Amino acid sequence: MVRHGMAIDLSRCMGCRACVEACKVENNTPHGVFWMLLLRFEEGTYPNSKIRYISRPCQHCDNAPCTKVCPVGARFKRDDGLVLTDFDRCIGCRYCEVSCPYGVNYFNWKKPSKNQYYDWGTSGLPYRNPDHNIKYEGRLVSGGNHYLGVMGKCTFCVHRLVKGLKPACVANCPVGVFTFGDLDDPNSAVSKAIAEKEHFRLQEELGTNPKVYYLGAPLDPRKPRKPLDVYREEVNP
Amino acid sequence: MRKGRIFLVLALLVPIIIAVAPLTDAFLGGAGSGIQPYDGGGSCHVTPSTAIVTMFTPSLTVAPVESVIVTVNVSGGNSGPILGVMLVSALNPAPASIPSSVGWTITADPSGSGTDNYYEISNYAGQVSLQWSLTAPPTEGTFALFARAHHGGGGEPQFANDEAGLSFIVGTGGISGAPVVSIISPSDAESVEGVMTVNASIESSTPIAYALLQIDGVVVDNKSQEPFRWDVNTTEYANGEHSLNITAYDTNGSFGYKEITVNVNNPEAEKAIPNWVWAAVGGFALILGIVAVALFMRKRRKEAGASEPKLDLTERELLAPLLHTKLPGYAVLVLSALGAALFLAVWYIQMTQGLVLTGMRDYGVPLQGSPWGIYIVNFIWFVGIAHGGIVMSAAIRVMRLEKYKSIARMAELLTVVTLLMAGLSIVMDMGRPDRLFEMIIHYSERVSTSPLVWDITVILIYITLSILYLYLLMREDLAYLRDKLPRFRWLYSLLLFGYRENEKEKIDRIAWWIALTLLVIVFLLSGGVIPWLFGLIAAQAGWFGAIQGPMYLAAALSSALAAVIVMVAVMRRAFRWEKHIDVDIFRGMGTALSVLVIIYLWFTLHEQLTYQYAAPTSEHDISNALLFGQYALFFWPVIAMLLGSFAYLAASAIARKFNPTGTVIASVVLLLAFWLKRFLIVIPSLTHPRLGLYPSGVYFPTWIEYSLVVGTIAIALLLIFLFVKVFPIMEVKGARRLTEEGVGTKEAQPSPPEVE
Fold first, then answer.
1. N or C end of chain A: which has fewer CB within 10 A?
2. Which CATH architecture best describes the domain B25-170?
3. Is the pTM of this model over 0.80?
4. pLDDT at B753
5. Where are the beta strands (DSSP E) in A20-143?
6. Nearest one of B184, B182, B186, B189 to B241, comparing CA atoms
């Protein structure tokens, strides 16, 4: 059985947000929802500071706290390692979001009323990739936040994986930041990438055992970090 | 000389004739005909080599002999008096370049009167738009049309073309071997309303890969297998014409499509009546109904009044709420009913428009909110009161605290009502409460790990036990009052099914065991699953840890005691039960409350000190936000309220004189303080993410949330009021026994064993 995992090479990332854009187009997520998110921040204090970028998909933890707390089993882990949400079963209690240390869950606070990023017309329904209507392994788990009152999050593009494609963020990165593949196979590209470079995972100390590996020096918890947006607001309020 | 003069006149005349002649039709097309091949034309005077010719038609897919409108736009080229434009079927020099040669029939040319393919404009001003109407060729296939602005005068003909032209597909799909789509319903230009069923049949020699349904160019759905049938809700589209296109792709990549127009014609939606009107009408109707019922019952009671004097004086006092309702009672009824109506209206608004109306948002980037809000705060608060209430009652029964027995049923009632409200608080927090049954379906699979399932289990156990307990212990009074209160005889008889005269002893034994069970499990439940809902979540800093259990237990018992004090005081005052509810009861409960509050404060000190002293940064941040940051404005007043109440209660426990009013005020303050303290537990942790990459968030409840929280309190009041007006809240039979045993005065009663 494969165990899908991802390696993100921080030294290559230039912060262009192509991964974010690709995710929005592929999964048709509405306003304010970023299943793939790029955090751009300044680390350290001037003059000993530098700008860093870190992309944050769902970490697809092997020991996922969200699957543990879900009262109905709508959040579950598949045998291939994907942590998915069953939109047909979710009751919208948001306990998974509360229990997630990575903040990757995005609730459907309202029904999307307009097209996002992929505007094929001004009238009619918001565009929805028809692949998301298909049930994978018998459950409605794929695609955008189009169901009012339920939770959604990154699916590692489960609808693309069945076609043998890589997730949209991986496929669209112009500088090859992402490596995606089977973590259990030592010869897979992702396993090799992890083996070759220094790597870390986010908040490993919580024991969630995430399957997203960041290649590069670990984040020093003592260094102050400030999102670039904050500076933009300061300079140009 | 004469010859020369004639020559001069002629020489002058020629240019004049040349200049005037184009205004007439005599020189049309240079050949005098409106039907011209591609290279035809003679004397138009615009030099069109720099002109831009474009063509437009609404649809390129047409049926044989369908009428087609082609618009030709010409712009640019040096302006001049005459411009000739022609519509041809080929740009190559071929005799078949006249449209009629390949099957087109021109039904109207730009002049409106003729059927020519060539048209001249007399005064070309640099831009023009011309329109031809044609009938498509009768045979299927691909047919092209081109437009050409032409200047045939002089030596070298000049022209400008729309090189691309228009390539019409006449027939069903065009490309041979491609799938052929035919739309069975709706038919072209059909008027549709409501749910439109789109039914298509697709014929193809190779298997169909998928078929797309597009409306107005927007993909609505795709299907990869039969039946190619869609139900489209037309109310989501504006009234008027919409194009509907079904395109089928086969596995070779060839495609065929069929496009029709449908005319959406839904009846105009009635002008929406604002929600507040409904709320107002509903609330008004509810109040009218309640008042009508109250008046009716009042009349009934007056009629039955003659048959009720069987009660003696003590009983009349104890049953005061059942016998008459005064003006404040009606005020409470109307206000709480209004609150309940508000709850229903606002909940309806929230459910239809989504939780976006609340102040809750996802934590982290970009929304920077708090995924849980005051609904959860309300839940913890109500659950705390509920758990404590039943424990008080159980303690009174198990330890036989006879002095407190008069308030036992009030504590039980409080438990049942607040438990219901706690459940309601969870339900109104959910995005999809209609799927609550999923929790039952998947119970066995989820109960091993999900604290929320433990919570539901606990609430169900508690509500079952407390309703059972309340009901069993009330049976004796119901049986006693069945004959004395004819008004409620039918209800009491219904509830007394299987009643036997000698059941008292057995019921007492059952109730004692239920009480003992409740006493034992409260530590696991109120001090267990509710704090575990938070204390087990490592993701949120400030929740994880072992102190949560004891803290929640102390908070639950304190707020329950405070709520019972307030409830007992209100009823004692409203129904003049000063004689039956001893002031000492308040003193005893106040003393217990002061102990619990100081224990709670002590736990808070432990918690905050740990966070401040040597903790991971995230815990430290939250503690700082509480003590010195954005929440300090709440935190310190809450601490002051707790400390002040403790000081007052402790002082009045030792003081010689005792005034219950102060105890009641302190209890109200404590109820408020504990609600706010729960807010300070839930919100700061959620707005300060442990992952340092996220900025901290903010949370401001909206009026929707405040309305629903106020609504739950109003519903609780309404339920308590209705219960009190229907069932005896004071123990009648028990009080009678006491009065009969004693001499009738309080001082002479045998002193019950004091525990406090």
1. C
2. Sandwich (2.60)
3. no
4. 40
5. 37-43, 50-56, 75-77, 83-85, 106-107
6. B189
Contact B452 A109 (CB under 8 A): no
Q: Are A103 and B365 contacting, i.e. CB atoms less than 8 angstroms apart?
A: yes
Report yes or no: B639 and B604 within 8 Å, Cβ to Cβ: yes
Tens of pLDDT, residues B16-61: 665 554 444 434 444 456 677 666 655 556 666 677 888 878 777 7
Report the side by side order of strands in the sheet with B127-135: B52-56, B67-75, B127-135, B105-108
Which region holds residue B124: left if phi is over 0, alpha if psi is between -120 and 50, else beta?
beta
H or E segment and range at residue B271: none
Fill in the DSSP letter of residue B80: B
- The shortest CB-CB distance from A120 to any of B217, B539, B695 is to B217
The number of residues making up chain A comes to 237
- The predicted pLDDT at position A200 comes to 93
Using 50 as the pLDDT threshold, list the residues of chain A that sit under it: 121-124
Q: What CA–CA distances, in Å, run from B144 to B161, B167, B676?
A: 13, 4, 77
Partner-chain residue, chosen from A71, A103, A206, that has the shortest CB–CB distance to B363: A103
Nearest to A127 by CA among A148, A142, A143, A151: A143
Amino acid residing at B353: Q
Listed in sequence order, the residues at least 6 apart from B697 whose beta carbon sits closer than 8 Å to its beta carbon are B361, B363, B364, B367, B368, B369, B370, B686, B687, B688, B689
Q: Which two tokens stand for residue A168?
A: 């949209």
> Is the CB of A230 inside 8 Å of chain B's CB atoms?
yes
Domain B180-264 has CATH 2.60.40.10: yes
**What is the C-alpha separation between B632 and B682, in angstroms, rounded?**
15
Q: What is the band of B1 on the pLDDT scale with cuts at 50, 70, 90?
A: low
What tokens does B131 get? Answer: 């329109």
The SS3 assignment for B53 reads strand
Strand partners, B123: none
Judge: B216–A105 Cβ closer than 8 Å, yes or no. no
Query: Which residue do the tokens 């303290």 mark?
Result: B677
Q: How many whole angstroms separate alpha carbon B364 and alpha carbon B695?
A: 7
Strand-pairing partners, residue B129, are B73
Q: What domains lie within chain A, and their CATH numbers? A: 4-235 (3.30.70.20)
- Can you give the residue ranges of every domain in chain B? 25-170, 180-264
DSSP E strand boundaries for B208-254: 208-215, 218-223, 229-233, 240-250
Cβ count within 10 A of residue B284:
12
- Rounded Cα distance, B414 and B419, in Å: 8
> pLDDT tens-digit profile of B363-405?
888 888 899 999 999 999 998 898 878 888 888 888 888 888 8
Mutate to test the interface with A, among B457, B691, B696, B702 (most CBs of A within 10 A): B691
Phi and psi at B246, nearest 5°, equal: -120, 120
Q: What secondary structure letter does DSSP report for B527?
A: I
ipTM comes to 0.90
Considering only CA atoms, which of B341, B421, B338, B345 is closest in space to residue B377?
B421
Same fold, B25-170 and B180-264: yes
Q: Are the beta carbons of B172 and B181 closer than 8 angstroms?
A: yes
Q: What is the DSSP letter of B207?
A: P
Which amino acid type is present at position A58?
C
| Helices B632-654 and B583-613, axial angle in degrees (round to 10) | 140
From the CB of residue B507, how many other CB atoms can be counted at a distance below 10 Å? Answer: 15
